[in-house]
């Protein structure tokens, strides 16, 4: 009996067909991501002057001075690339002719939707980390051309990138004031933030395939304003303000919560919101079978 919902062989065939039809666009996307990262990694040290002075070999200055800057810039790139790619996931449905071509291919809606998730969601992360490694090594190879003698030039460890500049157990760690909980909190907000934003822009792409980037950003700004208002009201409810000091109304209950429980709650909320956005996006995607809708 034929599986009308999902068939691995049919899914693989559609992935191959989509990659072939959109090869030029996909290659341009990869080259844009990797090329941007290489350009910034190679030029930024020159503009910033990171290697114009010798590095001091002390526990607080032994690190390559570009590590911290690269980490900041590349995290911003990761958020940007993930959101921009997701917003363009359904650009092939922006005209009636393209919609007819995509919708008449013998594959289920789930298989087509997962194909877009694969190319504009999962593949973006793979492309980014390949670009990160390549760009960083190009920086290491080119920096000695203009760096002064004694400047520390080393490849960026991925552990440093994922911990936002915290090398656990390394004598060169320049950010020891970040305890383990602080690093875990930063990682928690970064990971939940990026998957939630990416799923939101997938939803925006399914609603506005023609200009999801602009409308998605505008709607995100509107949501942010609403959330800020909610946060303000929540602060009025949960916080007692005394001049310039404040205390939580439920401080004892919150202190008993524990950091691990708190992070679990945040991760759970992030995952639930992400799944909700993807489900809404998939629901809207299925409605694209109504070719005259747009």
Structural class, by secondary structure, is: mainly alpha
Q: What's the total count of β strands?
A: 2
Low-confidence segments, ≥5 residues, pLDDT <50?
A: 171-177, 238-251
Figure out the total of helices: 10
Task: Write down the overall mean pLDDT.
Answer: 75
What's the shape? globular
**Rg, please?**
23 Å
- How much strand content do the residues show? under 5%
Oligomer: single chain
The biggest sheet amounts to: 2 strands, antiparallel
| Separation, N- and C-terminal Cα atoms | 35 Å
Cross-sheet strand order for the largest sheet: 1-2
Indicate the percent of residues in helices: 55-70%
Q: Would you list the SSEs in sequence order as H and E?
A: HHHHHHHHEEHH
Structural notes for this entry:
Helix 2 runs parallel beside helix 5 and helix 3 packs parallel to helix 7. The protein starts with 7 loop residues before the first helix and ends in an 8-residue tail after the last helix. Strand 1 and strand 2 form a beta hairpin. A two-stranded antiparallel ribbon has the order 1-2. The chain is built from ten helices and two strands; from the N terminus they run ααααααααββαα. It has 294 residues and is mainly α.
List keywords for this structure.
294 residues, mainly alpha, two-stranded antiparallel sheet, 10 helices, 67% helix, 3% strand
Quick summary of this structure?
With 294 residues, this protein is mainly alpha-helical. It has helices at 8-21, 23-48, 66-87, 96-103, 109-142, 158-162, 180-207, 212-238, 251-255, 259-286, and strands at residues 239-242, 245-248. The chain is 67% helix and 3% strand.
């Amino acid at each position: 009996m034929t599986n009308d919902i999902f068939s691995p062989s049919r899914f693989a065939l559609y992935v191959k067909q989509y990659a072939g039809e959109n090869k030029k666009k996909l290659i341009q996307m990869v080259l844009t991501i990797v090329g941007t990262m290489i350009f910034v990694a190679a030029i930024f040290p020159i503009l910033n002057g990171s290697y114009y002075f010798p590095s001091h070999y002390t526990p607080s200055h032994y690190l390559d001075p570009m590590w911290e800057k690269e980490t900041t810039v590349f995290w911003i790139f990761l958020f940007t690339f993930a959101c921009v790619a997701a917003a363009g996931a359904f650009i092939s449905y922006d005209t009636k002719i393209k919609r007819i071509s995509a919708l008449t291919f013998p594959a289920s809606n789930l298989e087509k939707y997962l194909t877009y998730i694969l190319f504009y969601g999962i593949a973006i992360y793979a492309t980014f980390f390949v670009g990160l490694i390549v760009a960083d090594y190009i920086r290491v190879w080119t920096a000695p051309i203009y760096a002064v003698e004694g400047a520390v030039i080393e490849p960026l460890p991925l552990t440093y990138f994922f911990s936002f500049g915290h090398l656990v157990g390394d004598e060169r760690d320049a950010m020891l004031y970040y305890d383990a909980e602080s690093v875990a909190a930063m990682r928690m907000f970064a990971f939940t933030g990026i998957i939630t934003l990416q799923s939101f822009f997938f939803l925006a792409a399914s609603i506005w395939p023609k200009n999801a980037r602009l409308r998605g950003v505008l709607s995100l700004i509107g949501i942010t304003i609403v959330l800020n208002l909610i946060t303000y009201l929540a602060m009025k409810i949960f916080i007692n303000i005394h001049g310039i000091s404040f205390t939580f109304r439920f401080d004892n209950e919150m202190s008993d919560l524990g950091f691990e429980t708190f992070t679990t709650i945040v991760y759970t909320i992030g995952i639930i919101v992400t799944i909700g956005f993807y489900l809404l996006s998939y629901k809207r995607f299925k409605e694209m079978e109504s070719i005259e809708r747009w």
